[in-house]
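ligand=hypoxanthine
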Amino acid sequence: MLAIIGGSGLNQFPELEIIEERFFSTPYGDCSAPLTFARIGATPLIFLPRHGKGHKLPPHLINYRANIRALKDAGVSQILAINAVGGMGEGMGPGTFVVPHQVIDYTWGREQSFNFLLDGYVNHIDFTHPYSAHLRERLINALISAGLPFQGQGIYGCTQGPRLETAAEIQRLIRDGCDLVGMTAMPEAALARELGIEYAALCLVVNWAAGLADQELAIAEMMQILASGMNNIKKTIFIFAKTTI
Ligand code: HPA
């Protein structure tokens, strides 16, 4: 079963054919919101807003472990994550859709592992390629079918937040090779890998990262770009859900 984890701007998804909402409790605590069991055409799926229904949870306080555990318990084997991000690389300006292929994790103090053992030993998952090649290809095909321009790869630098970065921090991320900056890719992607769930992300750039544009960052402008990109994100999700390759 497929799950969509909605990011900023996608806290509700009323266009889905909703079947029921079910609250899942896990050994790690409660997830961000009840899981919405729904359908797109013949495809069953689950929707979970990462920040909670009323966008009340900031990135560093999200219970990522509960979210991923609940999705696993509900039978999810594939996750499409939606992330609003800042852009840094060439061609990564506001309004751009990006299918990232790599992550650098700058977060700290988040519960980042289920700490489970494999045959009695500490389990070090392979995370060379944090995003599923197969889901990324399916997502790229969906973006092409939707007729949307996009960047087919990018390195996502995940910062701790909730504040935005300093100009010097963004210069460091650029030196590290990052193209995008956001606050929610990690530990979500790694936890999904720990539980054997395929994971890919669709990012929408909503601002130039700190210090790269003439003006200071304005949340209102980010929200406007987010709102205007949301229909295309939903369109892409609908196409993605209906294809199974
Ligand atoms: N930095 C971190 N996270 C973000 C940004 C940003 O500039 N824009 C949207 N999410």
